Amino acid sequence: MHDIRAIRENPEAFTAGLKRRGLADAQALTNDILDRDHGLRALLTRLQEAQARRNEASKLIGQAKAKKDEAQAQALMSEVAGLKDEIQKGEEEERTLKKALDDVLASIPNLPASDVPDGADENDNVEAEHRRFGSRPATNAAKEHFDLGEKLGLMDFERAAKVSGSRFVFLKAGLARLERALGNFMLDLQTGEFGYTEMQVPLMVRDDAAFGTGQLPKFAEDLFRTTNDFWLIPTAEISLTNFVREEILEDEKLPLRFTAWTPCFRSEAGAAGKDTRGMIRMHQFSKVELVSITTPEQSQAEHERMTDCAQEVLKRLNLHHRVVTLCTGDMGFSATKTYDIEVWLPGQNRFREISSCSNCGDFQARRMNARYRPKDGKGTRFVHTLNGSGLAVGRTLIAVMENYQNDDGSISIPDALRPYMGGMEKIGP
Q: Does residue 260 share a domain with residue 145?
């Protein structure tokens, strides 16, 4: 959600930010917002004047009656009644105008940070310096994960399709345990070494929670909805970030750092024809999510730290990867800056996203009314919120399978995961 005062005070900067986001009608949109704001403020001024006159006339009624000037008293009472009706109608109009303005503001994406590269799509993303790790494994005719999994007899898409349709899978035995091992390893790393607080969170949320993090109203078609109007979470970011909604936090308690390992549900409405085979793009998948709640002064450093925390998972697994800064045209709706971590998949012979770490500034906090009280105690300010995958567990499973595959089709277990696999060194048929 955008600050109407900031738009009012510097409309040129707002328009420039919208243009960087790729909005062709940026100037017209800014003008529309300012016109709506002007109309609303003019109405509020009239309402204040009417309220002041009603209060004044109400006092004069008593004075007129004290003087036994009944005609004056009746005229004033008639005026007060008219002002009452005028104020009631004006308050209804105020609610209508405010909702219309808020709806427009809620539909506009966050503005990009000044150091975000300009660009139209993923082809314009920029690799971050000094954040590439490892090298491509030397493999001969590397197979993709679904070929490996099906040959092992431990990954079954056909049976899942009978039960639930496309974009679902059954994992069995060693692969099922490997996914569980990955989730536990990630949680232990983030809580034990990086200070995140582990949470168990609701998997169904109400409209205002999904609105708070920016999934609603714009991306409703990407979500699954229950028959009694809950939304299945597409990421634990919604539940974790809304943990502080409508609260005023104390400055000294920030930053707050939360993590949760949950199933996630996405309709993949815009993914027709993309990644139709395998586990890359599923309706149901699991993810370890990282969320931070900070002051504005802390958020930039926290963004770098969060990305390092997510990247450390891949380092411990010795998986070749890189970090890229998303350009203005590829960032998510709520983000002001995003780093994507991309892992190397030898079966596809390319890097694929395995984590996105985003700084949302105060964009989500305004939608959730989440604030903190500065140390000087003067008023309150909106917190900054950050979120990232630490990591997508299913995609990490894919990366382990493809990078640790053997010529006989078996999968070697990375050293870091063997304690979670009962000492198992290899997954065979």
A: yes
Residue 211's domain is classified under what CATH number?
3.30.930.10
User: Each residue of 255-278: pLDDT tens digit?
Assistant: 999 999 999 999 987 666 777 789
Does the active-site annotation cover 356? yes
* Active-site residue, selected from the candidate residues 58, 245, 353, 412: 353
Residue 114 is assigned to a structural domain of this protein: no
Answer yes or no: do 72 and 142 share one domain. Answer: no
Catalytic position from the list 237, 299, 395, 402? 395
Beta strands in 202-302 (DSSP E): 204-205, 224-225, 231-232, 248-250, 256-265, 284-294
Say what the pLDDT of residue 55 is.
87
Query: Which residue from 25, 28, 26 is spatially nearest to 17, judged by alpha carbons?
Result: 26
Domain count, the chain: 2
Stated pTM of the model? 0.92
Asked if the peptide bond before residue 217 counts as cis, ω within 30 degrees of 0, the response is yes
Q: What confidence category does residue 215 fall into, taking pLDDT thresholds of 50, 70 and 90?
A: very high
Active site residue 266: yes
Catalytic annotation present for 206: no
Question: Do 251 and 395 have their domain in common?
Answer: yes
Phi-psi region of 366 (alpha: psi -120 to 50; beta: other; left: phi over 0): alpha
Catalytic residue among 131, 206, 245, 281: 281
115 found inside a domain: no
- pLDDT band (50, 70, 90) for residue 195: very high
Segments forming the whole domain that contains residue 101: 4-106
- Whether 216 has a pLDDT exceeding 90, the answer reads yes
Both tokens assigned to 304 = 């770098």
Q: Are residues 71 and 46 in the same domain?
A: yes
Q: Among the options 299, 356, 389, 410, which is catalytic?
A: 356
Query: For position 271, what pLDDT does the model report?
Result: 66
